[in-house]
Design brief:
Layout lengths: L2 H24 L5 H16 L10 H22 L5 H7 L3 H13 L4 H19 L2 H4 L2 H24 L4 H23 L3 H7 L2 H28 L2 H4 L5 H14 L5 H19 L13
Helix pairs in contact: 1-4, 1-11, 1-13, 2-9, 2-11, 3-8, 3-9, 4-13, 4-14, 5-6, 5-8, 6-14
């Protein structure tokens, strides 16, 4: 890999990883689902005018929007109101074993004993983290993150069923369709939206801009460019840096501290994910979960 592309790959992982603690900062000003509606609306506003309507893939994109805007992101962001950013960043990595399991069931993707060990390690790490005092009182939030990971794995399968298409068109139209889903969810489940609009601080709206422009457009756009230029076995291992940047960002930006249960559980989970990623399971070959 060229040095410039190597630096780009690391920078993209930093963008993805720092999204987790930045979201927690933004949640001080905005309700989680309402924040997501803003992120999806801004992403759609920037992308949709410049991409064609994917008429043939629209039914599949609608289903993807329901999965991502109706389940994955709301579960993840709502859980972040209670759960430490570091713990959430590690627990969401279970999307990888969930994806491998779904690929095995739906696409007859052979798991093998190494990937089976990786799956076991990933889930064992989350169990170890659940015993950490700060996490032990937030089991519901931890379960929500795991459910968000499972929903993302289902979304991955849906992306595979949609087939090849321009990533900006997919992202833009998924976000446009997701806006009314999120606005409805926010209206039903949250309050204080008007106060957030009129009195929201820089952290809340800054988070919306960061997620829409840096993560959804710059991060994903550059990442898929790297995937097009280099073999999968050169690019996918970089994804292991995402939780590292997320944990480091949680320490620096949120003042969180690392404990032995978090370190041990996180080590198990990341090691398990590394085994699965390096074995190149088809379900996680080209997609990654980010805030």
């Amino acid at each position: 890999m060229k040095p410039a592309d190597l630096a780009l790959a690391i920078g993209i992982m930093a963008i993805f990883g720092l999204g987790m603690p930045i979201v927690k900062l933004g949640l001080q000003d905005l309700p989680p689902i309402f924040m997501l509606a803003g992120r999806f609306a801004l992403t759609a506003l920037v992308l949709v005018p410049f991409v064609p309507i994917p008429r043939a893939q629209l039914p599949g994109i609608v289903l993807l929007s329901v999965i991502m805007a109706g389940l994955h992101f709301p579960l993840m962001f709502t859980a972040l109101q209670q759960l430490d950013g570091a713990a959430a960043a590690i627990a969401i990595q279970t999307q990888v074993p969930f994806g491998a399991l779904l690929a095995a069931m739906l696409f007859k993707d052979f798991i093998g004993w190494r990937r089976a060990v990786g799956m076991a390690l990933s889930f064992a790490g989350v169990v170890v983290m659940a015993g950490e005092p700060r996490v032990a009182g937030q089991w519901l939030a931890l379960l929500m993150v795991i459910a968000a990971a499972a929903a993302f794995a289902v979304g991955n399968i849906q992306v595979k069923l949609i087939g090849e298409m321009n990533v900006f068109a997919l992202n833009g139209w998924m976000c446009l369709i997701g806006v009314p889903i999120l606005m409805t969810g926010s209206a039903v489940l949250e309050d204080g939206q008007w106060q957030a609009v009129t009195g929201g601080g820089w952290a809340g709206w800054g988070t919306v801009v960061y997620l829409a422009l840096m993560v959804s457009i710059v991060g994903h756009g550059q990442w898929y460019g790297l995937l097009a230029r280099y073999p999968v076995n050169q690019t996918m291992p970089f994804l292991l840096l995402v939780p590292v940047f997320a944990v480091a960002g949680s320490i620096l930006l949120l003042g969180e501290t690392l404990t032995w249960p978090l370190l041990l559980g996180g080590g198990f989970t990341i090691l398990g994910v590394a085994i699965i990623v390096l074995r190149r399971p088809k379900a996680v070959e080209t997609r990654t979960g980010t805030p």
